[in-house]
Amino acid sequence: MGKEIYISSYIFQAERDGSNEYSDYQPGSLNTTDQLIKDLSNIDIVFHIGDITYANGYISQWDQFTSQVERITSTVPYMIASGNHERDWPNTGSFYDTTDSGGECGVLAETMFYVPC
User: Fold this and answer.
1) Could you tell me the pTM of the whole model?
2) Do 66 and 112 form a contact (C-beta atoms < 8 A)?
3) Which of 3, 13, 75, 84 makes the best surface tag, with the fewest CB within 10 Å?
4) pLDDT of residue 75
5) Domains of the chain (ranges plus CATH)?
6) 54-80 b/e (C-beta count within 10 Å ≥ 16 → b)
């Protein structure tokens, strides 16, 4: 049986103890992460398409997320594409002039995850 590619636009981040619960999708993100870790031997690469952490300018959310996916990113290539919550900010070249990124303007997404041009 061949290997698989996993593509997701919904992983997000969550603490197992619920200490940073602010919406109802965090528990689902842990389920997704746990399943990816269980299936790692069958996965060649992960593509995470947009809305990586929903950090919106809160740097600690990136730290938590990178800890959450460390077993995945240390085993298989993990490529991301920035979404509005990583990139959008007025007058920065984003397609939409919204404040969705909380001022991150793509810097964290583009420096924490190396993606070749």
Assistant:
1) 0.74
2) yes
3) 3
4) 94
5) 4-112 (3.60.21)
6) bbeeeeebbebbbebbeebeeebebeb
